[in-house]
Known about the structure:
- This protein is an alpha/beta fold.
- It contains five helices and 13 strands.
- Helix 2 crosses helix 4.
- It is globular, with a radius of gyration of 16 Å.
Amino acid sequence: MTPINNKQSLRALIRKRRRALSGPARRKAAKALLERLRELEGFMGAETVGMYLASDGEIDLGPTMAWCWENRITTCVPVMGEDDRVLSFAAMDRDTPLAANRFGILEPRTGDGEGMDAGALDILLMPLVAFDVRGNRLGMGGGFYDTTLRANREAGRPQPVLAGVAHEIQRIERIDADPWDMPLDVAVTDVAIHRFANTAIAAGASSSA
């Protein structure tokens, strides 16, 4: 793995890399991700799981959502507010109507006050552009997840297990983190579970398929 310090260049490189994956490779990775998640204690013991609707080559959580619905695990996805960068989370099932937000990302149609805060989640499966060996996460640059999780912590609410999910090709050696970046507890890919030191579920070594 080669470190790249410029975040803009890094985003462009990794986004191009994941978008280049073929359809069969993406479907295989999505199924493999579910198997890795089922090996993760923070996921298997959860009652409410935060997820996302994939775009831009992100690893697909479709099989994971379907498994959660079959096992009566509440599945929530982020909903953007109008005035700030704090996300709320709305429960979703197969019949939930969706609409594109201002970034063109699908999210549940909700009324005012219908979303829950991050503190209601047991584990949050977070999209990312890249992650490194220390648990630093590089997102798309909007700061929505970092702002949301920081606000949740400052409000004194419980913090969910922060699990980045990605293709293994999104793992790199080093990301230069900023002070406001929220580190991951664990990263789960189609190949392995990567646990990070000094986090909520750090016990145990990284496991691979």
